[in-house]
Each structure stands twice: as C-alpha cells, then as structure tokens.
Fold each of these.
Amino acid sequence: MSHNIAELTNIRKRFNVRSVLMGLNLNVPAGTVLGLMGRNGAGKSTLIKCMLGLLKPDAGKATVFGEDAWNLSMAAKQRIGFVPQTMPGFRWMKAGTFLDYIGSYYQRWNREKAFTMMKEWGISAGMRISRMSEGEIQKLSIIRALVHEPGLLVFDEPVASLDPLARRDFLRQIVELGMDETRSMIFCSHIASDLERVASEIVIIKDGVVALRGELSTLQERIRRIRIQSNRILCPPIPVRNIIHSVVEGSTAEVTVEDVPDEEIMSLGEKLSARVTIESLNLEDIFMEVNR
Amino acid sequence: MMILRHILQIYNHHRRILQVVLPVTGCLVIAAHVFLAIAYPKTAWCLFLSTIALSFAASGFVMGQALKEGEETDLVPGYRAYHMIGAFAVPAILILWAVALTALWRGPILLTLSSFLSMAVLSVWYGLYCLNGLLFRDNSGLVRYLSNDAKSWIIYYFIIWNIVMVQQHSNSMSGLLVSFALLGLFTCINVMTAWFGAYFLNNLSSFAGGTFILWILYDIFRISELSDVSSWIGGRHSIFKTTDNFGPIVFLLLALCAIILICSRYRKHIYIFEWEIFTYSADPYWRNYSFINYDGLKLPYMFSPESWQRDYAVCLWNRDKTHPRGVNKAEEIILTTNSRLRAGTKPTSVNQLLRFGLFSPVFAAGSDWIKFVVFGVVGTAMAFSYCLTRNAAAGVNFIFPGILFFSAAILANDFQGHRNRLPILYFQTASPSRAAFLNQSLRAYLWTVAIMSLRITVAALLLHPLISWFSKNILPTRKLSGELIAAAALFHWSWDGLAQMIVMGIALALGQVAASLFSGSRRAYAGGPGWLAINALLLVPIACIAYRYHSWQLSITSVLIAAALFLHARRNWLETELDFA
C-alpha cells in the first residue's frame, strides 16, 4: 500500500479579505503524478506554497514526508524539487555558476546530468541568466529542480515559456520520472493536453477546495456530455440527476452530468421522445464543464 | 548545536519580521547614540553603541539580501541558515570591531594592533563565509554572489567606519594599513586597488572618494571575471577574444602602475613625519605661533586662518628653538619636504608645496569651491555612471553609497578644515588643562558622526520611495529621476552640495541631451554607450581643471576613469549592436 508523500488537511488561507483556500484537503500518494488544474486565482500556487512551507496556512495542517511543511528539515528539503512560475533572483549569475552554486547545497546533486541537460536544451553554461529569454530561464529552473533526484517534484506552470521541442523533451522526462513509484510529482498547468499525457491523477481546484479528483479515465467515465435531439420543444430542466451544466435550445439540449449510469441516460430518450447520444470529454472539456 | 538550531528555528520563523526589526533597531540605537553623544560626549561607549547599531543594520541587510533571491530559495536546504550565519557573524565582527575601537583610545599602537586584529577576524569570517562554496564546487560563484549588495553594504560600512573612526584616530600609516587589510579581503587585485586608491589619493577624505571610484571601476570591469582563471591562462578562451576582457586588462595595468608608483615613491619616514606633524598641529603651543617668512614667502597670506594647514606651516617653517621638540623635527621636515619637490624647484607657493608634499594632495590645498566642484563632479559622475549602468530599479543601492562616501568626504574635510583639530590627538596628549577643549572636540566629533549616521538612515529610507514616485509621476525615465533625487539628497548636506548639484545636474543634462543627439536611438538611453561616452568626455576637462588647480593625482584618476568609461561604452555599444542585430 502506497503512503502519502504530502498531505494537506483542512487548509485555509486568506489574503486580506479574500479567501483563497477554504478547507482544502489533498493527499499525494507516492508514485503519483498529480495534475493540478484550476482557473486563475483558484489557489493552485497558494496550495503549492502551503504544501512546501513557503506560505503559512491560516488553519489546517500540511505535511511533506511526514514532517510539518512549515518546519521542514534539511533532509526533507533535500528531497524536494520545485519549479516556480518565475525563477527567483540570481539574474547576475551565469547558468553554469548558478547550477553549481545551488548544487553546492544538495548532497545528491548530479552535476553531470545538469550540464548534459543544459547542453541538450541549448543553454550555454557561460551565459548570464539576465541575458536569457524567459524560456531559457524556465529550462534552467527545471534543470535545477530535477538533478538532485528529488522524491517530490512540484512544477508550477513549468512549460508556459518553453518552445514545443523543449516542452516535448521536458514532458518525456516527466513521464520517465513518473515511472519511479517512490517519486511523486505535482504538475500544475493550464495546458490540458500536457496533463493528459503525464498525469496519473487529475485534481481540479475550484473556489478554494478540490472540486474534482481522479484518474483521467475515471473522470472521463464519470463526467459525460449528453446530446439530446427531440422532435418537440424541450423545456428545462432536463430530467436527469447530477447535472453539472445544461444548455437547452429549442428541440436540442446539451447536458453535462456526473456519475449517472448509462441506463438512466438512455432512458431520457423515451422520456423526451428524443435521440440521445453520450459523448466522452477530454480533460479540457471536463475542466471547462467543472468551471462553468 | 542545540542553541544554534534553536536560533535557526527562530530565525526561520520570524525572518521577515527580523528583516524589518533589525534595521529599525539599528536606527533606534543610532538615535540613542545621538542622544548619548550629546549627553555624555566623552565616553567611548557612544562609539561602541553606534557600532552595534550598524551591526544590526548590517545584519538586516544580509538577511534582506538572502530574502531578495525569492522565497523559493527557502526550499534550498541550508540556504537560509547559511545566510543567517552571515547575518549573525556580521554583528559579531562589528561588535569586536567596536571593542577594538574602544581600546583605541589608549594610543596609536594599540589602535593599529586592534585594527589589524579586527580585520584579521573579519578576514577569517569572510573566509569561512566563502568556505561553503570552496568545499563544494563553486567558490567563484559564491564570491560573485557576495559581490552583490550584501557585501557592498558591509564593506561600505566598514570603509566608512574605517575612514571616520580609525583614520581620524591615527596617523596615515595605520589608516593605510587598515584600508589595505579592509579591501584586501577580496582578491589580490582589490588589494592593489586599495593601495592604489589610498596612495594615489592619500588623504582620508579623498581616500573615501578614491575607494568609491575604484569600487565603481571594480564593478565596471567585472573584476570577478578574473576568478575564471581558465580564461586567462589560455585554453579555449583568448584573452583578447571578448570585449569583456578589456576591463581586467586595464585594471591589471592600473594595478601595475600603482605598484610601480608605490615602489618608487614609498618612503618609510613619510608616515613618521606625518605623525609628528599631526602631533605638532595638535599641540596648542604651535597654534599661537606667528608665521614666518621663508625665501620671501608670506605664509599667512597663503592659508585660511581656519585651516589646519596653518599649523602644518607653523610646524614646517618655524625655527624657534625654544620649543623642546620642535627644532630638529621641523628642520628635518623641511628637508624631507624639499627633497620631494621637483628637482631644481623651490616652493613658490604653499599650494605648490603642498601639492608636492607628502599628504593631503586633494583637500588640503585649493579653494573650497574648486575642490568641491572637481571632486563633486568626478565623484557624482562616477557614482551615477555606475548607477545607471546597472539595474535602475536597484539604483538606490548604488546611489546611496555614493552619498555615503560624499558625506564621509565632507565630514573628513570638515574635521581637517573647519574643526581645525583631530580631537583624538588631544585625547592622547591630554592634560588637565586641556580637558575642556577635549570634551568640546569630542562632542563636536561625535555629534557630527551621529548626524551623519542619522542622515544616512533618513536618506536610505526616503530615497527609494521617492525614486519610485518620481519615475511614475514626474519623469519618463526612472534613471534620470534617480539622479535628481540623489542630487537633491546631496544638496541636503551643505551649501557646497548645491554647487555640486548644479554642476552635476548640468553635466548630466548635457550628457543626456548630447547622447540623444549623438545617436537618436536606443543607444542614447541613460547608461547606454552614448551616455557613457559623453560622460567620459566630460571628465577630460575635469581632468584638466584638476591638474591646473588641484592635484595631478586627481587629474590622472579622472583620465583613467574616462578611459574606463570609454571602454565600457565601447563594450556596451557592441552589445547594443548585437541587440539590434
């Protein structure tokens, strides 16, 4: 039975008058690649920061590797890799110097791997960070997070600035890293196709809590779209349970439902004298439906 | 270990608060220091207290530096603790320094020893601070890291303290040596520059400016590049391959010049005579003496009645044999001084005498107007050139030290000129009859130091928001507004500051306009190659003026800086070309 690498229990965080996290619960089992989605301001970054001890929650408990996130030991920090949205400071350093400098703090820093990755991703070790493009800086940040072989990898919008080649390469590495069942990853991104590719579980945050969680295939089974084409004018509401969202226009309707068996859906055909089809949704559609 | 861990935890929990609390505490202690300086002027505890205040401030800056890198660095194991060691080590060293300063009051030998001791400890601390990088793989990275603001602040403080406290308390020899030790903390190149600055400008006030100028050069030329030894010993990098290497080459040449000059001009007895002169100047016996003629020179016409040079002259020229110590020494000094004049020339004016004299080449001679304008233009132009070539948003970090040095220069000048005395010397030779004078001098001394500290603090607090406000609301370019604010801050210092501001403002405006006309493109931006080139051009007449009215040392310095700016402009230009491409 796999244990949890990180656990958040009833986390609350408020910035002035605005509540961002409202009693959020989340656990990250070992060997999981968790794809984190949410609208802008939904609290994804806040969640990550609370989880990593970068932000103190107003209430609740966050643990990483069994330790209180706010008081992480050196040993625990050695096992965490984090790629923030924007890499902090050090702009005056050269890329190679930066990696060496950061690497000096880690016991298991794989310098060779770092420089190999830099070479593969076309980053010159002698180039100053201040002269790099955003994409290059992001690559460097990713390299920094990967090469000390962490047990928990957290990526906060890591691929936004990457070119397609680097993005593909990065995702390939993530997939490879995800094969290790002792390692967990949290991958926060708006690019649903990336998450579909790498994430073993999807978590959608909405209004400061986890709105939806599950494996992609499970989510696709749970959330489905029903298209109804009737001979007569349809009147809302459509008689089906667990509607997430519905649009009724004349004799047609489009209804997104959660956890409704096929039989119940198909029975709509008889009830409404209509032709009913069930559509599977991709992750982006699911995200859209949840956030409507 | 438990205690350390506990402190680490406290620090980790409250670091953001500490970042604010420590500097604020520092300011409060400075305020207390002001009060004590007024209430109890003769106690050395004021010095002690103010040093502790600085230590708090420095500690806060170190922490601030660590925080500046972003909160994500919290996740780098040991990163915070590592900086915390620095943050706590700095006050520890400063307190040690304060103890040493307190001990200084017993005499110059102890002064020198304690200075060295403090500096030695500082060196050890610095070494330990770098050890982390050394033990691992990247010492150069760490050194470069430390060359960022935190180090600058610490060093600025030490330099200021060094100038204001130590050199005032001692002769130039110990001051020079302390300066040497202070700046010698970095690399051998820096040591040379320290000596270069101290020797070339050889005066505590001009030393402040000199150090700052050299500091600017240091950064402009990216001396840290030297740590990349591989690029110097061949390999795949050619020394002439990149424009980046021009800086170190020029700097090496400068250092070489400095060594040659030091070797050729160094005289051991120089400092002995300086000490004697200071001693005489501090002795009221000489103060009442009339001036005498020498080769037909009417010395009283040459010196300001309020100037300490009067005593120098009295000491130098007096042949009264009634003084128990004066005769031989005075004659010897005359001989020594004469031997240092140009071959075949006799002093035709006291200015000329002093110009070729052994010390005080910049501030001892010349009118106030000239020295402030010349030094002001050079100093501020350099400060702003430096500032503007860097990140404008962080400009305050670079303007501020300039102001700091200016204040030190003015302060030092104040002591030399208007205060007319080096109070500590009175202390050392104090007798009961002089007690009142001693107290008065000390009071003035401590008061000035306290006010300076206060002004610095206020300026630091005010400058940054003001610059932001100006940049948003008044002026289109953040950089130019920063200049004007800094100019205004300088104005605050004295009426002489007004002259500086006007001259500097005209120079900057001309530089800006000329640079715009010159290229009419992105190259014209403040700090860009056109701007730098214009500034360099402006320094040429300054160098001429300096040579004509002031000192050849300053003139040479101006020329060197102009050359440096040209080189920097060239590099900047090439980079801009690449940008355009």
Amino acid sequence: MTLSIRIIPCLDVTDGRVVKGVNFTNLVDAGDPVEMAKVYGAEGCDELTFLDISASSDDRETTLDVVRRTAEQVFIPLTVGGGIRSVSDVDRLLRAGADKVSINTAAITRPELIAEIADRFGSQVLVLSVDARRARTESGFEVTTHGGRTGTGIDALEWTARACALGAGEVLLNSMDADGTRAGYDIGMITAVRAVTNVPLIASGGAGGLEDFAAAIDAGANALLAASVFHFGVHRIADVKRYLSARGYPIREGAAH
Amino acid sequence: MKSIAILDYGSGNLRSAQRAIEHIGAAVEITSDADVALNADGLVVPGVGAFKACMSGILGVDGKAIMSKRVAAKRPVLGICIGMQVLFTKGLEHSEGESGGTDGCAIWPGEVSQLSAPVLPHMGWNNVKAGANSKLLAGLDGESFYFVHSYAVKQSSGLIESRTTYGESFIASAEDGIVSATQFHPEKSGDVGLQLLKNWVQSL
C-alpha cells in the first residue's frame, strides 16, 4: 500500500472556455472545459486544476458555472486558482464544487489571507501557488507575480516556509523559467523547496519528455502538473503513468471505466 | 428510492457528497433538521477541516444525539473523513502540549492521532486492504481511494476494519453493521468511490 504520485492536467479557463494551447482531436468541442475534464477524468488523471485567467467579474461568474458543471460529472478532486482575493471568494468556489483553491498574488499582497482561509476551511483546501524564477535572492529563487513578468524581490524559499507556517496545506511550485519550454521541470528548484516544507509538493512548468516526470519525483515532488503536453496530445495521461509504473513509481492504476 | 440525509453543521463542500450519492440513484437532502436526519434511510456525516471545529459544529446541531438515537434504532450512519474521526472517543488534533484532546461522539472506542510520515497531510490516492466481510468494500479490495488527512485511528477498535499504510498502518474504513465510516473521500474517488457509496446505499 503506497500513496500514488498524482498526475494533474491544468486547464486555463476564461469566459467559460479553455484558452491555452489545446489540440484535442477526439473532441467535438475542444475548448469546452467540462468536456475536457471528463476526458481527462476518463483517462485516469488523479486531480484536475482549473486556472481562472478571467479579466472581468462576469467571466469569473462563468468560471464558477464551469466548476459547477464539472463537479456534477467528474468525481475526482478539483482545484481552482486565479483571482482569489478573499475568504468569500473561496467560499463561493467551494460551494460551486471546488475541493481546493490555489492562491498566489493575493497571499503575497496580504499573507494573513492564508491563515484566514485555513482557519475557516482547513489547510487541506489551500494550495499555495508559487511562481518562482532564478534570480539574485538569498536562495537564488525569487517569487514573481503576473505570470512571471513581475519580480517581487521576495525569496521563494523563505516565502514558502512562511506560507506553510501560516496554514497552506500544499505547494504548487511553478517554474517561470521552465514554463512552456518542455525542457524539463526545474529540478534544482524542486529540491530546494522540498527542503523547506513538509506539505505535499506539486511540480509545474517545463514537462516535456516522460523522463522529466520521473526526475521531478526524484527531486521530491508528490504530484506533477502539466498543461500543454497533455492538451496537445504529446503524452496521454496513461503514457505518463505507464512510464512511471514500469520504473517502480507508485501510480494509480486504471482510469475510470 | 432510498432517502439519504447529509448532516449540515457548517462543514464545507457538502454538495460533492450529495452529487455523488444522487449519481448512484438515491434521494439526498442536505439538512440540519433533527427529524429529517433521524428519519432518513441513511445519514451521512461529512467533515473537513479540524476535529475540534467539526465536533463543535456537530454538537451545535445536536448531531451527537441524532447519531446516538439512530444507532439505538439500528438506523445506518456513514461518516466521511473527519465525520469518521468524530465517531471515536477522542481526537488529539491541536492538543499538543495539552492533556486530553477533544471528546468525540464515542460511538466507537479509539483515539485519533497524528500520522507519523515525512510529508503531511496524507493527500492523494492510496490502496485500501478491505477487512474480512466488509460490506462497504465488497468487490473493492485493493482499490485506490482519495485521502486528505493528517490524523487517523491506528489501533484496532474491534470493528470490521479496512486498512491503509502511510508512514504507518491506520484504519481506512470501519463498520459495525449499523455505523460505517471512511477516512478517505468516496465522493472524490472516481468510479470505485461511487461503487462504495452504492454498496452502502444498497445495504440500507
């Protein structure tokens, strides 16, 4: 009996549509997040993440509806991130059917938000999303905002340790340098963050070859998130799982039937 | 169609349990009304967050008395996650440095204590070894279910017990013929979770 490594596809949603790099051939409507969630669920993904990249509050209402409709049909954990600023934002998402929320910029602006959410709903709902890049901070890793374009000067390791002490129950570590490159996860960054926290760690950014997934696990990741390699069909979820399983990594067998 | 009440005592995301049970074909009502909770064919006690907060929420809607009355009348109850933990005598969460911990509903003997593992919470899919004669896990021995927790009951309480290992062995599900419970989230465990809920509903 072993805890499985989780494989998590990430869907970027705005105005009710998946927007970033989608090239599904087996779907009538490739941009419908609910349909994509069902396909990934049937293929055996272990969790799903929606990243709400909406610009307006109307769009956010639409995303809530997407979460609602997905939760009606896909009985695996759903995480929703993007634009969460307050306890009431979290409450709305959980009521819509999200199991976890990920917060990023709002926590940097006002770290007490982490404790407020954890106190109200428990640490297990709160994923700290850390968008980090290599920079001249003390540890060599800096927290960024705005999709990696804006540096904060905050050291990524110090920030992660502090946020976990405040109540974050999981860390989603996005490498802004590796994001979209398909050149592999930032292994040095995963190793460094693993050393400062004992909550589950999700690696994100850079997944390309199948060996990249294994390398991230070896560095201490408990879950692996990817977007484009799944959306473009470079790898199916089952390919990743088969590869890892053959090398002795614990994975959950079998998709939904 | 069986009627299922989900006890609403302020613990989050009751809708996911409702949707999953509706999906397998039962009539589900989320309620804090004692009569509804007493009279349904099955009562589900969900729970996320901390033991102490859940226990005070349950006491706030008279949930302990509702469960006791159901047990006395042999009317089934299903606890999920913290809703399982509160069935035991005592929860030691957030009691570090204090004596005693928090009293549970004491339907079953046992203490809920922190798992010893390098990464907590225990979050994700883990296999469950079904207890002999488990009705909940009929046909599901060895399947993976979705867990999110840091505390668990480790010592046997003399029930029909299914077990999982994360750092150490603990009770993943338990049943005594009337009361059933899962430390994992069947409503978030895909097809196998739906099958477990179906097993429970069909046993009512």
